[in-house]
């Protein structure tokens, strides 16, 4: 009986030891974390540029085939830039409440839960959204490929 308990103890210690080795941080994990932070920072910068109507900076960030999904419809890259430039939509303030990023190869998917204050058609509106941002990496640079607003009903 004592031999069985001793054997079980040794087995448990070796399993815990091997588990600890598997949880070690690897360089690939570190770069993924760095890439995730880069996307988070880029997204925050994008919200600032949108609120300040920095269309030239946004034009560099937005992929030429980017799509934008709003509550009232979809827009191309040029349509989104034009509506920001003209003031048709003024993104006054995006209060970021939660953020998460998943990176799959050269694609990053960022989810922001935000409270957005915007002026749309001359009227100031405040809405809670989950905003999905899809970034693609091309030649070492992240480009925004899609921005989609999903309005939250219970907030």
Summary tags:
155 residues; alpha+beta; Nuclear Transport Factor 2, Chain: A; globular; disordered N terminus
Could you characterize what this model shows?
- The protein has 155 residues and is of the alpha+beta class.
- It has one domain (28-151): Nuclear Transport Factor 2, Chain: A (Roll), CATH 3.10.450.50.
- It contains 4 helices and 6 strands; from the N terminus they run αααββαββββ.
Shape: globular
| Residue share in helix | 40-55%
User: What count of helical segments does DSSP give?
Assistant: 4
Distance between the termini: 60 Å
Q: For the residues shown, what is the average pLDDT?
A: 83
Structural class given helices, strands, pairing?
A: alpha+beta
- Report the top-level CATH class: Alpha Beta
Cα-based radius of gyration, to the nearest Å: 22 Å
For the report, how would you describe the main beta sheet?
A: 6 strands, mixed
The side-by-side strand order for the widest beta sheet comes to 2-1-6-5-4-3
SSE map:
Blueprint lengths: L1 H21 L4 H25 L3 H7 E9 L2 E4 H10 L2 E16 L2 E14 L2 E16 L2 E11 L4
Parallel strand pairs: 1-6
Antiparallel strand pairs: 1-2, 3-4, 4-5, 5-6
In brief, what are we looking at here?
The chain is of the alpha+beta class and 155 residues long. Helices cover 41% and strands 45% of the residues.
